[in-house]
Specification:
Mean pLDDT of chain B: 81
Distance between the termini of chain A: 66 Å
Radius of gyration of chain B: 18 Å
Structural class of chain B: mainly alpha
Largest interface: A-B, 55 and 66 residues
Number of helices of chain A: 6
Order of helices and strands of chain B: HHHHHHHHHH
Distance between the termini of chain B: 38 Å
Number of helices of chain B: 10
Largest sheet of chain A: 17 strands, mixed
Strand content of chain B: under 5%
Largest sheet of chain B: none
Number of strands of chain A: 32
Structural class of chain A: alpha+beta
Shape of chain B: globular
Low-confidence stretches of chain B: 196-204
Oligomer: heterodimer
Shape of chain A: flat
């Protein structure tokens, strides 16, 4: 063995730096991913092999039977109703940036000649016609956009695999991987734009939405639909849910669809409501709606509360005036997670648009109200302390869950009653308190050192 | 040189060569795990989840990696960022991204000076941003250079042992180590000087 020269200060420091940055436990922790990666590698190999085998025979067929092919193309041209007779333009597509691979139609829907003409790898550039049935793969770091025959616009995200088809029921997007943002055109009667994913079907009547297909760690496909405008129907395992604006639908292969809000606090309010009912039943009290108070450093707070919309009239109403002390930036959410359209009128009244779901005669319906900036909840108490005492019960004794969200560094000096749940996130300390509300009672009390 | 070796690895990955994928996971996964955990302030389980999703996603996406445009690890970090974003979004949370560094010109000068003269203090070595900068520099090296540095300075093997492990002569390994050290110093210095003063920000 050769004698090695003693390490220089740089080498010694290099060793220290590398040891600090390359923890051996990370190697062990990361090794777990290898199995999943190799399984995916084998799957891709199998898929490639299957695709190559599927692609081989037709190619020979075209070569040897080219006169027959010409005749077949003529037949298709003569028999098929061209797009201008259907009233729908051909699909168009372009890569916005990056690379899109287009594979020819194998469903027999479109014209094989046209389909082969558009096949290949497309770089970012001009719009091109796309035959119905073509399969597309958007590469990583790439994006592609489409105008469908009904003038709906699609934006496909990186790493998306999809197929565009057309039928009498309307345009069909088969999304097998990745995601698309959709701006659906108004649909003609009897037609719908549909997005089919493994395990779910999304039907669109004219709206804006995102559809994303991913795979869960257990291998099941998960479809997520988020709606930014209009109403969407999500069907999976034979069950449907309607998704309003601001809601998200989740369908996992083999399970019925779930609905939740795109706004996390709305989901939390619904969770607190369910938890509050259980807690109230346990204590033999009536349950009241929950409240979230999200404190800011300056003493103001965003407050999430529940208001009840009541229709005493004899006919359904599609708008509702809610008296509210701080209407300017208030937002309102329905119990199914969607966001309602509200308009402040200037006289401390919020006009709520209920056109999507009118309030029936005699109906009462809870809605979740966000007041983004509420001041005056706190009274200064002594040396920099604050106390909170804003709740007062209206009816008989009831229990409501109140969730305080505080800056992570806040020091809670007193909390009465003690919290039911305590949670810490990266920036917040979250305390959920079971507040017993009764006439004349002031509860709960929170003493804070700011 | 660095990119050529990565380009060759990427070509083997595109061909779905299982040995290449095993090596890819072994070489890149630990650093990626650490990056994901720190950069997005994720818990251990979440970081593992993002790591696995990222690596699995890479199997189908690797064809899009272009070695002429940057290091494989840089590309990998971009994929990981998307996966972290989609995971957190699925949980109704936003991505909290912590800037990779908060060095200043003065810090960089002092650091580079100490590298050649004194011993780096342990509180300095514990800094998350510094560890990320080291890791970035390390991951930008050609895989063979990186391996040699890790064998020598982390696993503390002698040159003869490294030579046996890599199937090279001792003099070839000595020269490999010298070039690797020089390349590391160059990249690390660039990283330190490029970094700007910054405070933690939230990107949603």
């Amino acid at each position: 063995m050769k004698h090695e020269t003693p390490p220089t200060p740089f080498e010694q420091n290099l060793a220290r730096l590398l040891k600090a940055a390359a923890a051996p436990e990370d190697r062990t922790a990361a090794a777990g991913a290898l199995e999943a990666v190799l399984a995916e590698v084998r799957l891709v190999k199998e898929e490639t092999r299957a695709e190559q085998e599927a692609a081989r025979p037709p190619r020979r067929f075209w070569w040897w039977l080219s006169p027959a092919l010409a005749a077949a193309v003529m037949m298709v041209v003569l028999l098929a109703r061209p797009w201008w007779m259907n009233g729908a333009a051909p699909n168009q597509a372009r890569a916005v940036y990056g690379l899109v691979s287009v594979q020819p139609d194998r469903t027999g829907q479109g014209s094989p000649a046209a389909s082969h003409a558009t096949a290949g790898d497309w770089l970012a550039g001009q719009w091109r016609p796309l035959t119905s049935g073509s399969r597309l793969e958007v590469a990583a770091g790439s994006q592609a956009e489409f105008i469908l025959g009904d003038q709906s616009r699609l934006l496909a995200w990186p790493r998306t695999a999809m197929q565009l088809e057309r039928s009498r029921q309307g345009e069909l997007v088969r999304l097998s991987q990745g995601g698309v943002s959709i701006e659906a055109a108004k649909q003609r009667p009897g037609r719908k734009l549909r997005v089919e994913t493994p395990g779910a079907l999304v039907s669109v009547l004219g709206t804006r939405l995102d559809v994303h297909v991913g795979r869960k760690p257990d291998g099941r496909t998960q479809t997520r639909v988020s709606v930014s405008e209009g109403l969407v129907d999500l069907t999976a395992s034979g069950q449907s849910v309607k998704l309003p604006r601001g809601a998200e639908g989740i369908a996992e292969e083999g399970s019925p669809p779930r609905r939740r809000s795109l706004t996390p606090e709305v989901n939390e309010m619904l969770r607190l409501d369910a938890l509050g009912r259980v807690e109230a039943a346990r204590r033999q009290l009536a349950a009241d709606y929950p409240l979230i108070v999200n404190f800011r450093e300056d003493g103001a707070a965003a407050v999430w509360t529940v208001v009840t919309l009541r229709n005493p009239a004899r006919q359904a109403v599609d708008s509702y005036a809610l008296a509210c002390r701080a209407p300017a930036a208030a937002r309102l959410f329905s119990w199914d997670g969607g966001e309602l359209t509200v308009r402040p009128t200037g006289d401390q009244t919020l006009m709520i648009d209920l056109a999507h779901a009118p309030l029936a005669p005699g109906e009462t319906r809870p809605a979740i109200l966000l007041l983004p900036e509420v001041r005056g909840l706190f009274g200064e108490k002594g040396a920099g302390g604050f106390s909170f005492s804003a709740l007062q019960g209206e009816g008989g004794p009831a229990l409501a869950l109140v969730q305080f969200r505080l800056p992570e560094a806040a020091e809670v000096q007193a909390l009465d009653p003690p919290p039911l749940e305590t949670r810490r996130t990266l920036s917040r300390l979250i305390l959920t308190v079971p507040a017993r509300l009764a006439p004349g009672a002031l509860a709960p009390k929170l003493g804070l050192r700011p | 040189m660095e990119r050529a070796e990565e380009a060759e690895l990427a070509r083997r990955l595109v061909r779905m060569d299982e040995a290449a994928w095993t090596r890819f996971c072994r070489d890149y996964a630990p650093s990626l795990l650490r990056y994901v955990r720190w950069q997005f302030a994720l818990g251990e389980d979440e970081a593992q989840d993002v790591l696995q999703r990222t690596l699995v996603r890479c199997v189908r996406a690797i064809a899009s990696y272009d070695a002429t445009r940057g290091a494989l690890f840089t590309w990998l970090k971009a994929v990981a960022r998307n996966e972290a974003l989609s995971l957190l979004r699925a949980q109704g949370r936003g991505l909290r991204e912590i800037p990779a560094s908060s060095f200043g010109e003065e810090f960089a000068e002092k650091m580079l000076e100490t590298l050649d003269q004194g011993a780096l203090a342990s509180e300095l070595l514990a800094r998350r941003d510094l560890q990320l900068a080291v890791q970035d520099a390390l991951m930008e090296l050609a895989p063979r250079w990186r391996e040699a540095l890790l064998l020598k300075y982390v696993e503390e093997l002698r040159v003869a042992q490294i030579a046996a492990r890599l199937g090279e002569s001792e003099s070839a390994v000595a020269s490999l180590l010298a070039r690797a050290r020089e390349a590391f110093r160059r990249i690390f210095e660039t990283r330190l000087r490029e970094a700007e003063n910054g405070e933690e920000v939230k990107a949603r």
